[in-house]
Write a sequence for this structure.
């Protein structure tokens, strides 16, 4: 245990200035996936509630495909699957993109969390009090302004507790990145395990680090809820 | 184009393994969840402390990390234990380890689901049952459990979907489930994209069937509950 912390502590936590550490890589994966997921989810959640079937159906299909299959399978399709297709090799930009483990990982994670977040936001938008929409319409709000000023601010606030859950689950999912050769915390724990054959010590250090990140996230989301959902306080 | 190149039986066997693994893990975590919820709601502070530590720690750590931790350590601990008691070695195959680990991990999630559901059943129900002279276990089985299930069902269905999808991770610890079988087929035929997509479709099918079962069970456990119809 002490040996593992002494030998691999640096790779887990601190940087030598050239390589990203496990912790930094995990956090980068989490942030990148959540930013992509959030940017995808807001417009898609609006489309998901559209009254036009042709706008609604593709978003439904996207959510169905990405929430109905395991993230590991999605990662395999994107990382090993797409690169095995012949035409990808002939387009230089695609070739470069799909050959890199981290690009594929971030794409897969972003699309996956985007689908779950779309469902969460779409549910929150659906729960908007109709009186608010009526009032805004009667004041002459245009549809974009209605979404920007009335629907989205309240829907995103109400979605916050569920969304914080999704972020924690995303953190847990980032562990899959090591299967695509991305050097995150679990990859370093796995290296430590293969070098020492001491699985418990190697993985318990990783578990401890992940637990610390989880608790930090839970704590900050609780602060954010206290701030943004202050009107619900009793 | 749409042929399985003779890999059909292997993929089917993998799919069966996936379903078996999910169902057994569901059973394990269901029972562990009932135990955990009872411990969390019991008057004993020790039991409450143990159950709270269990749910908090397990839910803070990613399931893959726990899986690797438990899978690789379990065999070592078991060997130590059998050496200590001078017994024959017990070898754990990936399937058993998978069931134990998944059951142990998702038991924590089920504990929280059941705890909320038990608290949602009005207290008077259990008091009335006891005052009729029902034994505690009998009252639990006939009064508390059926009512609790109605509140727990949405959470249970969600947990089941998560378990089903997390069984894909067991291919990383060497079990030939549907993912591993499709990877083997893909490597053998150089059609990785096609075969991995088939694994994805099988998961889509399984989760859609689960949705249907959920609708059926919701109707079954909501018998006698008046619902608002729009």
């Amino acid at each position: 245990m002490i040996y593992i912390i002494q030998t691999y502590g640096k790779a887990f936590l601190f940087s030598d200035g050239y390589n990203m550490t496990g912790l930094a890589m995990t956090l980068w994966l989490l942030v990148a996936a959540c930013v992509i997921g959030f940017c995808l989810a807001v417009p898609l959640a609006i489309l998901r509630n559209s009254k036009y079937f042709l706008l609604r159906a593709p978003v439904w299909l996207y959510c169905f495909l990405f929430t109905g299959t395991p993230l590991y399978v999605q990662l395999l399709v994107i990382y090993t699957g797409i690169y095995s297709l012949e035409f990808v090799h002939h387009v230089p930009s695609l070739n470069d993109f799909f050959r890199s483990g981290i690009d594929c990982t971030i794409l897969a994670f972003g699309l996956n969390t985007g689908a779950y977040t779309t469902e969460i936001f779409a549910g929150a938008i659906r729960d908007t009090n109709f009186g608010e929409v009526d009032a805004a319409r009667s004041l002459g709000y245009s549809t974009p302004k209605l979404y920007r000023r009335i629907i989205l601010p309240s829907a995103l606030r109400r979605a916050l507790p569920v969304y914080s859950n999704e972020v924690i689950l995303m953190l847990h999912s980032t562990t899959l990145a090591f299967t695509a050769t991305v050097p995150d915390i679990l990859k370093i724990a796995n290296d430590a395990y293969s070098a020492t054959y001491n699985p418990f010590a190697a993985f318990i250090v990783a578990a401890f680090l992940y637990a610390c990140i989880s608790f930090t996230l839970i704590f900050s989301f609780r602060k954010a809820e206290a701030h943004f959902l202050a009107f619900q306080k009793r | 184009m749409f042929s399985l190149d003779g890999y059909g039986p292997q993929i089917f066997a993998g799919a069966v393994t996936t379903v078996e693994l999910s169902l057994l893990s569901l059973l394990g975590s269901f029972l562990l969840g009932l135990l955990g919820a009872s411990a969390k709601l019991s008057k004993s502070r020790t039991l409450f402390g143990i159950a709270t530590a269990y749910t908090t720690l397990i839910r803070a750590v990613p399931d893959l990390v726990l899986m690797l931790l438990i899978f690789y350590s379990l065999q070592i601990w078991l060997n130590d234990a059998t050496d200590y008691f001078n017994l024959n070695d017990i070898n754990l195959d990936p399937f058993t380890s998978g069931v134990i680990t998944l059951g142990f991990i998702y038991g924590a999630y089920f504990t929280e689901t059941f705890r909320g559901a038990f608290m949602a059943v009005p207290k008077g129900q259990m008091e009335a049952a006891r005052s009729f002279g029902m034994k505690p276990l009998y009252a639990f089985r006939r009064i508390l459990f059926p009512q609790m299930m109605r509140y727990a069902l949405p959470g249970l269905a969600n947990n089941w979907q998560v378990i089903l999808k997390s069984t894909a991770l067991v291919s990383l610890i060497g079990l030939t489930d549907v993912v591993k079988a499709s990877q083997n087929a893909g490597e053998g035929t150089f059609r990785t994209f096609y075969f991995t997509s088939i694994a994805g479709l099988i998961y889509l099918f399984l989760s859609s069937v689960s949705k249907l079962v959920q609708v059926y069970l919701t109707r079954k456990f909501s018998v006698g509950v008046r619902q608002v119809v729009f």
About this structure: The CA atoms of residues 130 and 194 of chain A lie 58 Å apart. The domain at 25-181+199-232 of chain A is CATH 1.10.3720.10 (MetI-like fold). The interface with chain B takes residues 64-65, 68-74, 76-77, 80-82, 84-85, 171-176, 179, 186, 189-190, 193, 199-200, 203-204, 206-207, 210-211, 214-215 of chain A (CB under 8 Å). The two ends of chain A are 48 Å apart (CA to CA).
